């Protein structure tokens, strides 16, 4: 059975097209990162990218009998597990989400307006503090199409669900990790400035089941999608 893929935030189902072809991304099932439902009765392989890892881990914790294994790529772990925010490009959004739900909605609406008229401007802004190797992805036309689609999915098509998901992520969900029993593979780039390597190490140490942590030299956040293997 094809894996169930959970995209990042901002992001969308098209994120899977950045995966290596060995994943057969066109055959992957799409999980709803913004409103995750329980998987079917047959145990599934869940793949979570970035904040999609939050959705995948939550599902594995709540429905352990329905999740056979997890692959987490550039995973966003609990913020409360360490002093990670100073190392994270998305820190301003997460700090705002902690302070003000209204502020987060206003920011998302503004980003939605920019996405409508100048999506590449917003992409450049989002990538401005990323590793130079990561920014090179913006030179790839196909990758830019994927990233634009992700902005539209979260900021234009489903802004309320996006805000709700960010608000849920910044709460303390460390207890969920103790309920995850299936095997977990974590792919993490050492040049990632969205979800830092220390966050992946902390996540690996907090999980109770078997964990295979793979730190990849020179890989960034989105770049790790292209280098992770099934």
UniProtKB/TrEMBL annotation:
The keyword Mitochondrion does not apply. This is Alpha/beta hydrolase family protein. The keyword Hydrolase applies. Gene3D superfamilies: alpha/beta hydrolase. One of its GO terms (molecular function) is hydrolase activity. It comes from Jannaschia pohangensis. Pfam families: Abhydrolase_1. Keywords: Hydrolase. Residues 42-225 form the AB hydrolase-1 domain.
């Amino acid at each position: 059975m094809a894996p169930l893929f959970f995209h990042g935030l901002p992001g969308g189902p098209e994120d899977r097209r950045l995966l290596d072809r060995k994943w057969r991304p066109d055959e992957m099932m799409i999980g709803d990162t913004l409103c995750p439902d329980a998987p079917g009765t047959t145990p599934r392989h869940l793949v979570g990218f970035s904040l999609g890892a939050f959705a995948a881990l939550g599902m594995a914790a709540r429905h352990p009998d329905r999740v056979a294994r997890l692959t987490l790529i550039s995973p966003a772990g609990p913020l409360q597990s360490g002093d990670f925010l100073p190392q994270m490009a998305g820190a301003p959004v997460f700090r705002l989400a902690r302070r003000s739900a209204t502020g987060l909605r206003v920011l998302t609406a503004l980003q939605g307006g920019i996405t409508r008229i100048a999506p590449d401007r917003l992409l450049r802004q989002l990538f401005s503090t990323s590793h130079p190797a990561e920014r090179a992805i913006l030179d790839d036309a196909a990758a830019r199409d994927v990233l634009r689609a992700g902005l539209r999915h979260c900021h234009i098509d489903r802004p309320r669900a996006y805000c709700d998901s960010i608000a849920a992520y910044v709460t303390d969900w460390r207890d969920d990790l103790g309920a995850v029993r299936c095997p977990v593979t974590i792919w993490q780039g050492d040049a990632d400035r969205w979800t830092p390597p220390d966050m992946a190490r902390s996540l690996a140490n907090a999980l109770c089941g078997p964990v295979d942590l793979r730190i990849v030299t020179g890989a960034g956040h989105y770049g790790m999608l292209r280098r992770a293997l099934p």
